[in-house]
Amino acid sequence: DVQLQASGGGTVQPGGSLRLFCAASGFTFGSGYMAWFRQVPGSEREFVAGVTWSDSKYYSAAVKGRFTIVRDNVKNTLDLQMTSLRPEDTAVYFCASTTSRTRPPLAEYNYWGQGTQVTVSS
């Protein structure tokens, strides 16, 4: 059974940190692009961070300098270290994979994790 399993979400105060985890089963990352997205109710799914098989990373302007994406091609895991969290980071976070080697449009991601809730609130 092919799936991505995301975990690690929770509630944290502004300025705090969280680490999200994503593990693949039933397939390997291979040379495909991996990414984290987030979504709030009523809004489109938003790209947060992505990484190529060769560890080239890209971040949205909203999280650059605060979030770090970590890919392990041996363990088939994709983490997202989040620091200096803000209330506007509150969302459901999804990991995703694609067979494309470079960042593709949203519709071309093949597999999605089930989402993990991150809430930043005092």
Description of the structure:
The protein has 122 residues and is an all-beta fold. Helix content is 0%, strand content 47%. It has no helices and eleven strands. It has strands at 3-7, 10-12, 18-25, 34-39, 46-51, 57-59, 67-72, 77-82, 91-97, 111-112, 116-120. Strands 2, 4, 5, 6, 9, 10 and 11 form a seven-stranded mixed β-sheet that branches. Strands 1-3-8-7 form a four-stranded antiparallel β-sheet, with no helix packed on it. The model has no long low-confidence stretch (mean pLDDT 94).
Topology record:
Elements: E1 3-7, E2 10-12, E3 18-25, E4 34-39, E5 46-51, E6 57-59, E7 67-72, E8 77-82, E9 91-97, E10 111-112, E11 116-120
Parallel strand pairs: 2-11
Antiparallel strand pairs: 1-3, 3-8, 4-5, 4-9, 5-6, 7-8, 9-10, 9-11
Number of helices: 0
Describe the oligomeric state of these chains in a short phrase: single chain
What is the ordering of alpha helices and beta strands? EEEEEEEEEEE
User: Which sheet architecture does the biggest sheet show?
Assistant: 7 strands, mixed
Basic shape: globular
Q: Percent helix among the residues?
A: under 10%
Number of strands: 11
**Average pLDDT across residues?**
94
Radius of gyration: 13 Å
Distance N terminus to C terminus?
40 Å
Classification by helices and strands: mainly beta
